[in-house]
Amino acid sequence: MRNISLLLLILSFTNCNSQKKTEVNTNSNKPNSDFIGIYEYKTPEVSENHYIMLDIQNGKYTGVYYGTEDNGEHGVLFYANELENLTIEKDKISFDIGTRNLYKTTQMRIVKQQSDLKKDSISDVSKGLLKYSGILLKNEFTLNCASEFGHCWADELNFKKVTE
After folding, report:
1. What does the alpha-carbon distance between residue 88 and residue 23 come to, in Å, rounded to a whole number?
2. Do the Cβ atoms of 101 and 117 come closer than 8 Å?
């Protein structure tokens, strides 16, 4: 009975330690598929949340950033851009987002026909380059944003992997 109690104690301790944040081991020669998925940065207003979708295509990481920009008194505008110059090495991630076509409605949606996307008209264009870099963990990453014109939503954004 004492041995069973000791075994249960060891198993519960091991389980607690395995739930700690662990870094993703990436190799620039071969992408790590554990990192693939959708990541969310939560804002106070759910409709303004930012998302990053990461994937592997032709042996390289690719991604899309779904974000928002402040439109002053008129609320926010939405955009969807590919991640430019995406680099993931060991525990670091970096990418750029260039010119953004800004829309009045979210660009993160499922459409039945390509013509449904054309119904949105561009409200504005944001040309300031956004440079992101940060620390990569197994199910999340923290990004710092730099922009010459102050177009970053926040200086630091913590994205967590969507598991549902």
Report:
1. 12
2. no
Quick one: pLDDT band at residue 49, thresholds 50, 70, 90? Answer: very high
Tell me the two tokens of residue 85: 């110059």
Return the CATH number at 87: 2.40.128
pLDDT value of residue 97: 97
Determine whether 157 is exposed, middle or buried from the number of CB atoms within 10 Å of its CB (0-12, 13-18, 19+): buried
pLDDT in tens, 119-136: 677 788 888 999 999 998
Burial of 54 (0-12, 13-18, 19+ CB in 10 A): buried
Give domain status of residue 73, yes or no. yes
Q: Is residue 3 part of a domain?
A: no
**Between vectors from CA 148 to CA 61 and to CA 132, what angle results, nearest 5°?**
20
pTM over 0.85: no
Q: Is residue 4 part of a domain?
A: no
Q: How many domains does the chain have?
A: 1
